[in-house]
Amino acid sequence: MQNWRDAAQRNLWLADAMLLMVAIIWGSSYAVAKQALWFYPVLGFLAIRFGLTFVLLVPQLRGDGRRAIRPGLPLGLVMLCIFLCETWGVMLTTASNAAFLISLCVVFTPFVEWAMLRQRPSNLLFAACLMSLAGVWLLTGGMAISLNLGDGLMIVAAVLRAILVCLTRRLTADREVPPLALTAVQSGVVAAGCLVLGLSLPGGLPALPQSPAFWAAALYLVGFATLFALYVQNLALGRTSATRVSLLMGSEPLFGALIAGLWLEERLTLTQWSGGLLIVVATLGTLRFGRAMAPTVGESRAQTAHPGASVN
């Protein structure tokens, strides 16, 4: 019996460590994406990133994976809108702001469920929403508020992520849709949509970038922030509780801000740090006490293929 308990404890700690690693990877993805955008425009970057993801996951569409095609097409269109907002948002704001603001999707989700599924959030969720709004106010300047276009796009992306999670639940309810197959379809839609949009612009897309830094960033987002992260999340959910997963993944915005500071030399003021921490606390409160438990940032990213990162 004691050996069994020891083994269970080791599995729990291993799952926690792996989830924390994913939180760090997703946190880093904002800075990685911002760096990639130095070398190639948004539409081309997304077409490459999700095209590679689709190619790697296309074998998942065999057999039962075909069930993902019908729900995956409309969900992929929503995801296309999300990543366009997120990627342009990351380009136009700081990576640290992007990391904090996208986490608002966890707070928005219960309210989208209320609108779509008629499930009223608890009073604690209303309090969490007010706390998040206060956090956004502080993060974007406090008394001298200066919500720029990039910040606004990240907030729109957070709302769209909440919509995508609820729509995913609706379209996949009572259907055994393999998650990797669903990610494959969504990735294909995003890649195709960005390619069509990019080629339709005057001058089209530029030649493929030659910089090793760009390709390293793209492969990192595909390999680690998408495929590895999805595998770890699915593995961890079989070894630990959803609440524990939520709490660990809720640390992603903090890692995003820290890595942006170390890598891109972005600096947050004390007021901005206070705002970011309020958003994180509100997010964790939503995950812990929400009546209709909102998905974690990680869960929403997985269901949106998160590929990594939102733009990440």
Automatic annotation (TrEMBL):
<feature type="transmembrane region" description="Helical">
    <location>
        <begin position="38"/>
        <end position="61"/>
    </location>
</feature>
<protein>
    <submittedName>
        <fullName>EamA family transporter</fullName>
    </submittedName>
</protein>
<dbReference type="InterPro" id="IPR051258">
    <property type="entry name" value="Diverse_Substrate_Transporter"/>
</dbReference>
<dbReference type="GO" id="GO:0005886">
    <property type="term" value="C:plasma membrane"/>
</dbReference>
<feature type="domain" description="EamA">
    <location>
        <begin position="149"/>
        <end position="286"/>
    </location>
</feature>
<dbReference type="Pfam" id="PF00892">
    <property type="entry name" value="EamA"/>
</dbReference>
<feature type="domain" description="EamA">
    <location>
        <begin position="15"/>
        <end position="140"/>
    </location>
</feature>
<keyword id="KW-0812">Transmembrane</keyword>
<feature type="transmembrane region" description="Helical">
    <location>
        <begin position="180"/>
        <end position="201"/>
    </location>
</feature>
<keyword id="KW-1133">Transmembrane helix</keyword>
<feature type="transmembrane region" description="Helical">
    <location>
        <begin position="213"/>
        <end position="233"/>
    </location>
</feature>
<feature type="transmembrane region" description="Helical">
    <location>
        <begin position="12"/>
        <end position="32"/>
    </location>
</feature>
<keyword id="KW-1003">Cell membrane</keyword>
<dbReference type="InterPro" id="IPR000620">
    <property type="entry name" value="EamA_dom"/>
</dbReference>
<feature type="transmembrane region" description="Helical">
    <location>
        <begin position="124"/>
        <end position="146"/>
    </location>
</feature>
<feature type="transmembrane region" description="Helical">
    <location>
        <begin position="270"/>
        <end position="290"/>
    </location>
</feature>
<keyword id="KW-0472">Membrane</keyword>
<feature type="transmembrane region" description="Helical">
    <location>
        <begin position="73"/>
        <end position="92"/>
    </location>
</feature>
<dbReference type="InterPro" id="IPR037185">
    <property type="entry name" value="EmrE-like"/>
</dbReference>
<feature type="transmembrane region" description="Helical">
    <location>
        <begin position="245"/>
        <end position="264"/>
    </location>
</feature>
<feature type="transmembrane region" description="Helical">
    <location>
        <begin position="98"/>
        <end position="117"/>
    </location>
</feature>
<feature type="transmembrane region" description="Helical">
    <location>
        <begin position="152"/>
        <end position="168"/>
    </location>
</feature>
